[in-house]
Structures are given as C-alpha cells and as structure tokens.
C-alpha cells in the first residue's frame, strides 16, 4: 500500500481576506459603539434619569414650594435628559410676578433643584397714568396710583407696558438702556442715596441725591464715571447742603447752593424816557422834580423737584 503524503493547501487569497478583515475591524467597532450609545441614549431618555424629587431652593415669600413647582410645569416621572432648562425658567418667570430670576440644576440620577430669587422693589416709574413699581432687573411688580416714598422715582420714561409680570419698556428704546445703566450703578451701591431720576430729556438727565442735590449729568454716556465724580463732590459737602451739581466739561462738577441761586438778583435797572429821536426826556413829578424809572429783574433757578 502506497503512503499518501498530505499537503496543506493554502488559498492564494487568504492574505487578501485577512487584510480586508483588518481594514473593516475599526468600522465594525464604530458600528457596535454607535449601537451601544444609541441604546444607552434611548434608555436614558425613557427608562433612566426620571425625576423622583423636585427641590425648591431660594426664598420667594409670596409663594410656597408647591406653587413654584406647579408653575415650572415639571412633574415627578419626567425625564431629566429631555428637560429644557430655559423653558422651565420662562414658565416660572412668566407665571410668578415676584420671582426675579430662576436657575435649574439637574442632580443625576433623579433629582431636580429649582432655585428662585425673589423680586425686590427698586424703583417707582411715574407718569400721568400712575406709578409702576419695578425691580432692579426692570420687572413690573405693581401698577397703582401711588409711589413708594422709600424708592427712587423715575419720571419722563415714556412707559410702553404696564402689566405686572412684564419687563419694563419705554417707547424710546434708548431710555431702556439708560434705565439699565442706572439700575446697574445703583446695584453696586451709592454713598449718597438716589431719590429721583428725570429722563424727560435724555440728553440732559437729572439725578437727585438724598432729596437735596440735583445733578445734571447731560447724556448717559460715561454715566458710571459721572456718578462717581458726583459722589466725590457730594462727599465734600456738608450733609445739610441743598443745591445743584452740573457737569463742566468731561472731568469736573460745579456745585451751586440752592438758596444762593434762587436769591440771586441783578441790581435795579434805571430807565429814562426818550423822545422820538432817542434823546433823553426829563420826567418830573407833580412838584416839578426830575424822576427816573427803576425796574428790578430777578433770576431764579429751575423749579426744584
């Protein structure tokens, strides 16, 4: 019997197949990874990360935690991955007049924290239709006939909206920016309290400090610097001084005492009668004595507000 020698036959295409498999391996890996990620995302938006606890933080005295949670539109069981923070914030701000700002924090796996900042009255905005009480951010809190004497009063704003819960807006968009600049400066803190703001002429704005010194600062350019300059002058005045501050150029303030300005008079003017040619005519009284006519002119400051 003849022995048969077995020989292993290798296909000539085997190296090509191996190279092709090696090239496809990264693609297979990407497909598997995509599949895993897709399944994970699907599960996270349906099964996992559903809200079990809604926590209300911050302090809004006018509302309970339940009120705020209801206004948010969020419920336990909702999925946190699908939750839109901006939408939740706007829900609360639109429905709750006395909430000024909202922040939303997702504490995975199942806790949502809603932090609210209450609206604090900061200004009266007064016109012929009444008075709006607004927060520092410009949110309208109250529409009524009377101003709060503890708050600075703004006049000349040209209010375009009056509904509580809406943001303060002027018919003149530039006055919106002026309000925002003033509110930001007041929020930083003032050495002398601001009691009134006159925006009737936006190119000649007047701020009244402590109800006794009216500061004409011109337009609203460099407002922060101008107010700081005014504070420097106010700090050098006696606390009972009442008067007027005016910007002189770009880097100086001029102070005038109110009483001195309002009592300022010119010397009496003597006038003499003349004939048709402009020649003096001597007037006499009933006794034949020459007389002159005196006219007194008084200069006063603008009406005090």
| Helix and strand pattern | HEHHEEEEEEHEEEHEEHEEEE
CATH topology call of one domain: Rossmann fold
**CATH architecture group name of one domain:** 3-Layer(aba) Sandwich
What is the gyration radius calculated from CA atoms?
A: 39 Å
- Total helices: the number is 6
Q: What does it look like?
A:
Among the domains are: 53-118, Roll (Ubiquitin-like (UB roll)), CATH 3.10.20.310; 125-261, Rossmann fold. A hairpin with a 4-residue loop joins strand 5 and strand 6 (140-144). It has 305 residues and is an alpha/beta fold. It is built from six helices and 16 strands. The protein has a nine-stranded mixed sheet. Mean pLDDT is 82; it is low at 292-305. The chain has helices at residues 14-44, 65-72, 85-95, 173-188, 223-236, 258-262, and strands at residues 53-58, 99-107, 111-118, 121-127, 130-135, 140-144, 153-155, 194-198, 205-209, 213-218, 243-248, 252-257, 269-271, 283-284, 290-291, 293-295.
């Amino acid at each position: 019997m003849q022995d048969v020698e077995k020989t292993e036959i290798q296909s000539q295409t085997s190296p090509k197949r191996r190279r092709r498999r090696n090239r496809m391996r990264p693609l297979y890996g990407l497909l598997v990874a995509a599949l895993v990620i897709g399944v994970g995302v699907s599960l996270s938006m349906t099964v996992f990360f559903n809200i079990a606890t809604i926590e209300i933080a911050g302090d809004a005295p006018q509302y309970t935690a339940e009120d705020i949670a209801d206004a948010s539109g969020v419920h336990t069981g909702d999925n946190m991955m699908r939750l839109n923070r901006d939408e939740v914030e706007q829900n609360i701000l639109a429905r709750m007049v006395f909430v000024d700002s909202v922040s939303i924090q997702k504490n995975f796996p199942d806790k949502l924290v809603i932090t609210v900042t209450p609206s604090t009255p900061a200004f009266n905005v007064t016109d012929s239709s009444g008075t709006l009480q607004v927060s520092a951010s410009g949110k309208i809190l109250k529409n009524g006939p009377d101003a709060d004497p503890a708050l600075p009063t703004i006049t000349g704003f040209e209010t375009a909206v009056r509904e509580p819960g809406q943001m303060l807006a002027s018919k003149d968009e530039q006055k919106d920016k002026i309000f925002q600049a003033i509110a930001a400066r007041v929020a930083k803190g003032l050495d002398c309290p601001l009691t009134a703001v006159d925006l009737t002429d936006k190119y000649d704005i007047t701020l009244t400090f402590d109800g006794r010194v009216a500061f004409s600062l011109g337009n609203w350019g460099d407002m922060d610097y101008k107010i700081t300059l005014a504070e420097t002058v106010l700090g050098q005045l006696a606390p009972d001084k009442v008067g007027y501050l005016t910007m002189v150029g770009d880097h100086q303030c001029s102070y005038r005492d109110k009483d001195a300005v309002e009592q300022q008079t010119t010397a009496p003017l003597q006038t003499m009668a003349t004939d048709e040619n402009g020649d003096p005519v001597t007037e006499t009284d009933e006794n034949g004595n020459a007389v002159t006519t005196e006219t007194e002119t008084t200069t006063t400051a603008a009406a005090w507000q």
